[in-house]
């Protein structure tokens, strides 16, 4: 029996053109399995051309289900993450024609369902005898999906046990059946292979080193934020926020065994715990800290600001934790209390941020806009709250509405008691894809963006100063090129004023694809095509890894010597992709 666990390609054309042969600037790329909120973003990659450094989450539920099903059934199980492969549709469908799988499992959700239903119909055209099984948040509408589409089965929630049942003959809608804690800690480790192992990446919190291993130390979260997908649909069944949400912890021995195996096999340089909420209680966190002390690699985690003692942050730092993500959602307390149901005191969160920064760790804050019932004035409160915090980086996104969450149930029922302030009023913008919603909100005066650096970040200031100092020192020996005139360039210029006269005198020359032909305080900005004739060192200025990876690829095409490039950021990929 041949079985495919598939995360199919997801490309969106920014404008119409024939086929898939277009540069990265022509595409939005999607992330699906592995993302709590599937969405599309501006691409650095293009179909068939992988560029390292874009946000690329590991598909945890699928990775665990693949190895679990293989062990439990003895089937020949293949895991194919076409998102990580940056695979074209032609390549994907050709693979299906060649392999002719008996079962294909696809994880999907509201933001990608319009796209994925086309994939489903196309797969059925190519392989009419193949049984297609849907998983993911869209399983909340399992009966309707099965009525309208050629689906063999729909598995609700995490799908290790469900996939085994399907491969043993079950069909239809399979209700939630979670692993017990004992089963979870006896399960095989999630699937990785040599092709995809180094591709997964999340640049935040700041300080990551590639290659990065993304793992779980727990499943589930007891909190009931209105928009949050996995605790409502995958690790629980709580679409209206009134049910019980469980948390199951991996034992420290299991986590240590997994880390030793995967780090030993693939040589990871940093570890990111992408739990729904990593720090749910001091005992669990301290156990993982002991593991990480023995592993000896830098690590980071997705956390809440208020679920551990202040001294436990110190234990995390002592064991190698260099940074955390903290979810704030809104900077308006009323919104957090009455719409989000976050149960987070914003002043308590502020104190935690200051403590974490005092310990020398980086902090990435996550915020969302466009909640049901949220006013533009309340959104501006979030902007002001962000400005008041000593964050290193922060993420502002549109709030997507995904099946199976309380936010989606609100649309069906009109009102939810636990979310008394949530209302689908005239200001509410319905867009399931949070990336697309963010782009629409950005058209107004909010100036919302995806991941941003804060110019007040001590961590980033050190990076910008180091870059400026290195350029200044190199310019003493001859002409130097700065490639990339963007945010990080201007921040570097602000931190190292000595660069300005060097640029004015032509000892530091500026190169940028978008701004070529313009001038900066009288200094011309040249096209990168002129770089092959430049004799001095070429410094890459962007902090974002995907930008620098794309620039290195452009350098190779232009014939610029790799030895001439200077990349001072510590998160550059170790292996050439």
TrEMBL record:
The keyword DNA damage does not apply. Keywords: Iron, Iron-sulfur, Metal-binding, S-adenosyl-L-methionine. Residues 207-441 form the Radical SAM core domain. InterPro entries: BchE-like (IPR051198), Elp3/MiaA/NifB-like_rSAM (IPR006638), rSAM (IPR007197), rSAM_horseshoe (IPR023404), rSAM_sf (IPR058240). Coiled coil: none annotated. Its cofactor is [4Fe-4S] cluster. PANTHER family: ANAEROBIC MAGNESIUM-PROTOPORPHYRIN IX MONOMETHYL ESTER CYCLASE-RELATED, SLR0320 PROTEIN. This is Radical SAM protein. It comes from Azospirillum formosense.
């Amino acid at each position: 029996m041949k079985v495919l666990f598939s995360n199919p390609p997801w490309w969106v054309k920014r404008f119409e053109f024939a086929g898939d042969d277009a540069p990265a600037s022509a595409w939005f790329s999607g992330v699906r399995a592995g993302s709590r909120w599937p969405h599309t973003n501006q691409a650095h990659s293009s179909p068939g051309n992988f560029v390292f450094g874009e946000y690329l989450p590991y598909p945890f539920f699928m990775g665990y289900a693949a190895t679990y099903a293989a062990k439990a059934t003895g089937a020949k199980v293949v895991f194919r993450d076409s998102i990580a492969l940056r695979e074209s549709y032609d390549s994907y469908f050709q693979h299906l024609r060649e392999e002719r799988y008996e079962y294909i499992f696809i994880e999907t959700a509201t933001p990608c369902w319009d796209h994925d239903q086309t994939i489903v119909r196309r797969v059925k055209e190519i392989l009419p005898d193949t049984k297609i099984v849907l998983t993911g948040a869209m399983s909340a509408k399992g009966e309707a999906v099965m009525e309208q589409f050629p689906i063999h089965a729909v598995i609700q929630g995490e799908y290790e046990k469900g996939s085994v049942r399907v491969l043993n003959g079950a069909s239809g809608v399979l209700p939630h059946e979670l692993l017990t804690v004992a089963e979870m800690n006896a399960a095989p480790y999630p699937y990785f292979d040599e092709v995809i192992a180094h591709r997964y990446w999340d640049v935040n919190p700041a300080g990551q080193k590639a290659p990065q291993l993304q793992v779980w130390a727990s499943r589930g979260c007891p909190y009931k934020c209105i928009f949050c997908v996995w605790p409502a649909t995958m690790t629980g069944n709580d679409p209206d926020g009134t049910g019980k949400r469980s948390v199951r912890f991996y034992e420290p021995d299991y986590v240590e065994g997994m880390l030793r195996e995967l780090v030993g096999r693939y040589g990871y340089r940093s570890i990111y715990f992408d739990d729904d909420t990593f720090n749910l209680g001091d005992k669990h966190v301290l156990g993982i800290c002991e593991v990480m002390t023995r592993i000896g690699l830098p690590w980071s985690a997705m956390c809440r600001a208020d679920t551990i003692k202040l001294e436990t942050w110190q234990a995390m730092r002592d064991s190698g934790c260099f940074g955390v993500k903290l979810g704030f959602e809104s900077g308006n307390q009323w919104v957090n209390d009455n719409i989000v149901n976050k149960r987070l005191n914003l002043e308590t969160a502020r104190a935690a941020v200051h403590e974490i920064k005092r310990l020398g760790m980086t902090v990435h804050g996550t915020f969302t806009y466009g909640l049901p019932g949220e006013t533009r004035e309340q959104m501006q409160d979030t902007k002001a709250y962000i400005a008041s915090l000593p964050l290193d980086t922060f993420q502002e996104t549109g709030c997507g509405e995904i099946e199976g969450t309380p936010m989606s149930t609100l649309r069906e029922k009109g009102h939810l008691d636990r979310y008394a302030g949530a209302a689908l009023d005239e200001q509410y913008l319905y867009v399931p894809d949070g990336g697309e919603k963010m782009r629409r909100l950005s058209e107004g005066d909010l100036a919302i963006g995806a991941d941003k650096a804060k110019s007040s970040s001590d961590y980033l200031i050190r990076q910008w100063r180091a870059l400026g100092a290195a350029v200044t020192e190199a310019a003493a020996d001859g002409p130097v090129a700065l490639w990339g005139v963007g945010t990080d360039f201007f921040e570097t210029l602000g931190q190292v004023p000595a660069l300005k006269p060097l640029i004015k005198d032509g000892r530091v020359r500026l190169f940028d694809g978008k701004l070529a032909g313009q001038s900066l305080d009288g200094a011309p900005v040249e096209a990168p095509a002129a770089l092959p004739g430049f004799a001095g060192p070429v410094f890459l200025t962007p902090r974002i890894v995907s930008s620098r990876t794309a620039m290195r690829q452009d350098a190779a095409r232009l014939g610029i010597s790799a030895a001439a490039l200077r990349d001072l950021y510590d998160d550059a990929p170790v292996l050439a992709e």
